[in-house]
Amino acid sequence: MIKQDNNTFVGQLHFHFSKLNSTNKFLQEFGDFNNDRKSFVISTDYQTNGVGQRGSFWESEPGENLLFSMFSFYQYLKINQTFAINKMVSISILTTLVNLGIENVKIKWPNDILIGDEKIAGILIENSIQGEKVKSLIIGIGLNINQLKFKDYKRKCTSLKKVKGIEFSRFDILEKLKKTIETNFSKLKNDFTAFDREYLENLYQFNVWKGYLIYNQRKNACIKGVSFGGDLEVKIDSEEILSLKNKEIVFI
Questions:
Q1: 167-189 confidence digits (pLDDT tens)
Q2: How confident is the model at residue 58, as a pLDDT?
């Protein structure tokens, strides 16, 4: 157990494990027993069943990357405000990477961070609902740090070491990222639109006409925005604006 500074959203405690099934799944099981209602972070060297959005698999070699989840008991969040957390976390990762000297960092809706066209990080946010508000948040992040070889996916993956050619400390980056998230959340809780503009300015393929699969049909479309609830707003050839959820549109 590593004692951390007195944060209100990220939490005071950090627990590290050599191996877990999944950091998010661990927190799902643990949350009901967290009677102290404290926010904290867990990390692991290796996940045997790391998951991404909609059950996709997250690949990571043991000890090479940053794999962690935050459990937060911030309970003033309404259900329709949860994508604002996604925007804040995305901007926090982007800012951390830029501060490390990484260029051409982009946010790919709804939950990936890219360098150029290659994936370096993924976000998985899950929540527990009580009435009309969020009871607790689990924010899972996978960030490729020192891994050099990846399997051949449709979208190539990269890492900090591949980009910069040097070894990075996973836990130094974790500390930088935690502080950035805490600072950004302080801004967000005063204004849940605080990161809307910055999010769009850094959104992958924003305002660019590209080919997509929309409802399993190939269409030429242009990303025009993201709704407050998190739907992707795209213009298609007919000038019609569609509001699409994840898996209704595929980047090709």
A1: 999 999 999 999 999 999 999 98
A2: 65
Which two tokens mark 38? 């404290």
pTM over 0.85: yes
Contact 42, 15 (CB under 8 A): yes
> Looking at this protein, which amino acid is placed at residue 81?
Q
Query: What is the reported pLDDT for 1?
Result: 32
2-201 adopts what CATH topology?
BirA Bifunctional Protein; domain 2 (3.30.930)
**Segment 183-190 long-range contacts (CB within 8 Å, at least 24 positions apart):** 184/88, 184/91, 184/92, 184/95, 185/8, 185/9, 185/10, 185/74, 185/88, 186/9, 187/88, 188/84, 188/85, 188/88, 189/74, 189/76
The CATH class, in words, for 209-251 is: mainly beta
